[in-house]
Amino acid sequence: MHSSLRNHIERVVDLSDQEFGYLLAHFEYADFGKGDLIFQKGEQVVRAYYIVSGLVKLIYHDENVNEHIVSFAMEDWWESDFNAFFNRSTANYTLKCLEATKAYYISIEGYEKICKEIPKIQPFWFQKAIGGFASSQRRILSLLTNSPKVKYEQFLKDYPTLSQRVSKTQIAAYLGVSRETLSRIYS
Asked: pTM for this structure?
């Protein structure tokens, strides 16, 4: 199981066995069941999660309790309420398991200690942050400018395996359209 985390990191930064051992000592491992809430809106966010297997969704509930899916994270992806994680504050989102999920997690203190003690790991974190930021900007632009049909086609192109793992209702919530609109697109 450790090999998945090591392989993930070493796509960017080579680590010696000693360095990886030190890094791994700052991670914990957890198993979550389908439907489990990893954290909820209003709770202190103290961890960032690397998904080994399974699927989670980051959701926002508005004042009318409508669910808006901010992101999905599956194998080899990271997820958290990163604003709350890095600012040591409470969550604006809820992180929920859509499947049984295995994950490694790290605290902000562990993250900071690793960055200080193994400086060559910083390009890895930087690449993850930039990738997430760029992806978020593409998604925002799509939400603002694309028709529901184009949004759905782009979703299928960008995440072909994910579309087989989540319901059309959840895809609609992610795309910011109604389930009925999504049904009309491909009925």
From this structure: 0.93
